[in-house]
Amino acid sequence: MSELVQEGNIFILSIPISFMIPRVEEIHKLLDIVENHEGPTALIITSKHHKIFSAGMDLKYMQKHGAWTGLSIFSALMGLYGRLLSFKVPTIAALNGHTIAGGLIFALSVDYRIMARGKFTIKMTELGLGAVIPRGGNVVLSTKLTPSVHRDLVLRCKEYSCEEALANNIVDELVESQDLMIRARELANELASLGEKKDVYICVKKSMYYDTIDINLKAEIKKIEWKIMGKEESKL
Amino acid sequence: MAELSCEKSMYLMKMPVAFSAETFQDINEKLDIIEKAQGPKVLIVTSKHPRLFSGGLDLKEIQKKGLDYALALYDGILKLSARFLQIGFPTIAAINGPCFGAGFLLALAMDYRLSVPSAKFAMREINLGMPLTPKGCAIFKAKLNPKMYRNILIGGKSLSAGEGKDEGFIDEIVEKSELIIKSKELAETLADLGNKNEVYSCVKSSMYHDPIKVISSDDNLHEYCLKILKNNFNPKL
Questions:
Q1: Most B CBs within 10 Å: which of A146, A204, A212, as the mutation test of the B interface?
Q2: Does any domain span residue B189?
Q3: What is the CATH number of the domain that holds B136?
Q4: Closest C-alpha to A95, from A144, A51, A160
Q5: Hey, which of A130, A183, A208, B222 has its CA 20 to 30 A from A199?
């Protein structure tokens, strides 16, 4: 379950460590509350788990509901990425642990990333699992990262330590674990004034990322694109 | 008015620090002259002012003439920048001081940027409640890394020349007394590439196909952003 806490102009959204459709819908509802807040506003997104920020889509959910239904989570997630890319107020991901696959793309869809120092990894697991990364996910990676980091994440399944993530601009800041939320709040307070004129903020973000947003918001499952490698389509 | 001088194949243009409608017309005419010249050529652009490279659009003129004039200037800087993006000879911005708004956009539209250590770079549109449209963002997107693209357009802060060098949008930092000398040294190494104008222009048009296309085509988002911009327009900026 997600949880939204308001502290004056700052909202803190705690997400569950994996995504399934009802959880994405719940996140959308909580995001509505943040966007409807008047005056200066900023949003911090984190998780309550002790060592995972997000593991991406929920593989158990997929197994339980069958691959084809399970895969519909991809289009729901891309809708969420598209929304965050054009969110009306400044957004900060406070990465409190491992940030993996769909969870990494989620973190990259927000404006700023602060990570807790620790033995946490950042990686895309798809190629290793024989799965495809949809175009919507790839376009977030290519928009927010440099070409060589995008390649190494996707085509080599390179695992980045938090220090490497900082050096490669995957995250903006690295802080001690106990300081993570302090620093996130500090940055949120600094940015909140830009979240007052919401029409302006969303306009600039849409202008900046319009093609990435478009691709994600219009994404839908296409059997050919989503086919899990090595399996017959009929089994999906 | 801009001042244009020429030494062998090397052109030096000194711009006024603010862009009015006349400035755009004048700069475009001077670019026509350079384009027509035969043989190797290269252009260095700097400012007439001793300490300021560019303050962007001419706010005094905008205060006098209002919103429509401001929008015409916005269109003017987009067209001029798009022209630089595909012009058929190498271009160098010799940045001699602070470089804001439309001036920053134009400097990025050139091929190379040398800067004095004291220069500052900023887009203050987000602070002023005047959102850039996709056309205004396109060149930043093409020329900046993703982190700088974000920091400059939605961070609302100014960056130093040192940060520019670290993040790759400034090629070299040089002392003020050396700025034009170093720019000319670089220009000399590039002038031959400006001999075959159609080749140079063709390569640049291919490289920057996306921003050129965005700037030259109309879309709904551009109109939507302009509506917000109009709502927030404050002539007393």
A1: A204
A2: no
A3: 3.90.226.10
A4: A51
A5: A183
DSSP letter (8 states) at residue A108: H
Is B221 a member of any domain? no
CATH number of domain containing A82:
3.90.226.10
- Residue range(s) defining the domain that contains residue B114: 3-180
Any idea what DSSP says for residue A19?
B
- Whether residue B36 is predicted with pLDDT greater than 80 in this model: the reply is yes
Task: Give the confidence band of B217 by pLDDT, cuts at 50, 70, 90.
Answer: confident
In a domain, B51, yes or no: yes
* Number of domains chain B is built from: 1
In a domain, A235, yes or no: no
In this complex, do A143 and B146 lie within 8 Å of one another by their Cβ atoms? Answer: yes
Q: Closest approach of chain A CAs to the CA of B135, in angstroms?
A: 8
Q: Choose the mutation target among A114, A199, A211 for the interface with B, i.e. most B CBs under 10 Å.
A: A199
Q: Is residue B85 assigned to a domain?
A: yes
Q: Per the structure block, which two tokens stand in for B93? A: 């911005």
Q: How far is CA A7 from CA A13, A43, B202, in A?
A: 11, 10, 54
ipTM: 0.87
Question: Residue A232: pLDDT band by 50, 70, 90 thresholds?
Answer: very low
Q: Is the pLDDT of residue B235 over 90?
A: no
CB-CB neighbors (< 8 A) of A206 in chain B = 134, 221, 224-225
Contact B89, B112 (CB under 8 A): no
Number of neighbouring beta carbons within 10 Å of residue A221: 17
Q: What is the DSSP letter of A6?
A: E
Q: How confident is the model at residue B236 (pLDDT cuts 50, 70, 90)?
A: low
The pLDDT > 70 percentage for chain B reads: 99
Q: Say yes or no for a CB contact (<8 Å) between A201 and B147.
A: no
* pLDDT tens-digit readout, A87-140: 999 999 999 999 999 999 999 999 999 999 999 999 999 888 877 788 899 999
Range of the domain at A135: 3-194
A45's tokens:
């997104």
Average confidence (pLDDT) over B1-16: 96
**Total number of domains constituting chain A:** 1
Contact A46, A55 (CB under 8 A): no
**CB-based contacts of B212, cutoff 8 Å, min separation 6:** B82, B85, B86, B205
Give chain B positions within 8 Å (CB) of A145: 146
